[in-house]
Design a protein that fits this description.
The chain is mostly helical and 454 residues long. Helix content is 79%, strand content 0%. The chain has one domain: Amino acid/polyamine transporter I. Bound molecules: phenylalanine. The site of phenylalanine has 15 residues, from helix 1, helix 2, helix 10 and helix 14.
Length: 454
């Protein structure tokens, strides 16, 4: 007799695990500096539109595929799409997730390394910004530093995954997510009480429409996808552990809401903290490793603030990395009959090895560039500009056209008849998004991204 497939212990377990996946580096690190560089509130509005018309529908399409098929992505796409071509599209999303898991861990390794720096009190004694930069460069250019923390980070995630879906992923999300919210609230309140907080808020809330260029639109869409973990096998896999008896829309909506609130609150925390010492908010990815350490050296209580900040980012990154490794594991278990523990070892070691060149992209490999881009730049570009949008597109096409809206809607309503009777317009919304807005807008943005990169 085959062992029953793993599943979530409760609806709350599902919500927190998926929220853990969604809330990650993209919310805390990427969102604030995108808002800073692309027009403040104008970017926020554009981003919310992308969520409504593309991100949320693609998110629903993927969890629905998983929940209906109760299989890992390759098999789920085959079951609903009816042939090998669809199966291969599903498998592609697993590969995408695996690629993301490799560089995501390399980057998260730096965060872990910076947390150690914060604990050792090395982020609070800078007297000039040159010192901050020198410290950053020294760490980044040390090959062993990046690789060891990348390894440590993967080991942490592997340990949770090793314990299984319920005893590992679900249990760890149940205490990590509340902790993350507490730390975030602490940072937002501290930020709001700092001098100049008003200037930070004003910057956030004043729209600059001239900054909304086609590039901003592409970035907003990419952000909506990446932050919701669309296109990487994660949602199909996490959805496949969810019971068909539960209300899917009602479980997913709070996740998207939480994810959006965390992005907005992170932007508030980052801007108020950064403005307090009169720094520029749009300082790109150097924000976390250079601007913030400088701020921590200037304000009172900087030591504790630095620790809290890096704890926040680390918590967010851990649950996301776990979720992006899970599709490969589910695939090896479901389709090749591997024992879970062996699958975890294989996935984690694979992600570690593939992540090594990313972890070295600022040190020994920094001069190995192609058109001025490092290995990390390329692999991230490949995932976020090509593979992730494609994965999301395949999912909405499967749901809206191949499997078909009528069948999909029957499955979507499972466990939630009364809910759809109360909100009948939801059917029209999903029909419009699955069939038209999501696929068409993804294709337009995707073509523009390709066109503008050449
Ligand atoms: N959503 C995560 C973030 O915002 C990243 C992620 C992508 C996690 C894909 C899992 C799958 O950082």
């Amino acid at each position: 007799m085959t062992k029953a497939r793993e599943s979530w212990g409760s609806k709350l377990g599902f919500i927190l695990a998926v929220a853990g996946s969604a809330i990650g580096l993209a919310n805390i690190w990427r969102f604030p500096y995108m808002v800073g560089s692309y027009g403040g509130a104008a970017f926020i509005i554009l981003y919310l539109l992308c969520l409504l018309l593309i991100g949320f529908p693609a998110f629903m399409a993927e969890t629905l595929i998983g929940r209906t098929a109760q299989m890992s992505p390759g098999a789920a796409f085959r079951k609903l799409g009816g042939n090998r071509t669809w199966e291969n599209m599903g498998k592609m999303t697993i590969v995408t997730g695996f690629i993301v898991s490799s560089f995501y861990s390399a980057v998260a390794g730096w965060i872990l390394g910076y947390l150690v720096e914060a604990l050792l009190g090395r982020l609070t004694g800078f007297e000039t910004t040159d010192q901050v930069t020198a410290h950053y460069t020294a760490l980044m250019q040390h090959p062993l530093w990046g690789v060891s923390f990348h390894l440590l980070f993967i080991l942490l995630c592997g340990a949770v995954l090793y314990l299984g879906v319920r005893a590992g992923i679900e249990r760890c999300s149940k205490w990590m997510m509340p902790l993350l919210f507490i730390v975030l609230f602490y940072l937002v309140i501290t930020g709001l009480m700092m001098p100049n907080a008003g200037a930070g808020l004003r910057f956030l809330l004043t729209p600059d429409w001239t900054a909304i260029t086609p590039t901003a639109v592409v970035l907003a869409l990419g952000q909506a996808f990446f932050t919701l973990s669309v296109g990487q096998g994660t949602l199909v896999t996490y959805g496949s552990y969810f019971s068909p008896k539960e209300n899917l829309v009602q479980s997913c909506f709070p996740i998207v809401l939480m994810d959006t609130c965390v992005s907005l609150l992170s932007a508030v925390a980052v801007f108020t903290i950064v403005f307090s010492v009169g720094m520029e908010p749009n300082s790109g990815p150097g924000l976390i490793f250079q601007t913030l350490p400088w701020v921590f050296s200037q304000v009172s209580g900087g030591y504790f603030l630095a620790i809290m900040f890096f704890v926040l980012v680390l918590l967010a990154a851990l649950t996301s990395e776990i979720s992006v490794l899970e599709p490969v594991i589910a695939y090896l278990v479901d389709e090749h009959g591997w024992k879970r523990k062996r699958a975890v070892l294989a996935a984690a070691s694979g992600a570690f090895l593939l992540g090594v060149p990313s972890a070295l992209s600022y040190s020994v490999l920094r001069n190995f560039t192609l058109w001025d881009k490092t290995f990390l730049d390329w692999i991230e570009l490949l995932a976020s500009s090509l593979l992730i949008p494609l994965g999301g597109l395949f999912a909405v096409l499967l749901v809206g056209w191949k499997w078909g809206f009528v069948n999909a809607f029957v499955s979507l309503k499972s466990g939630s008849d009364a809910f759809f009777k109360r909100y009948p317009w939801l059917e029209n919304y999903f029909w419009f998004c699955f069939k038209f807005s999501a696929p068409i807008l993804i294709v337009i943005v995707f073509l523009h991204a390709i066109y503008s990169s050449f």
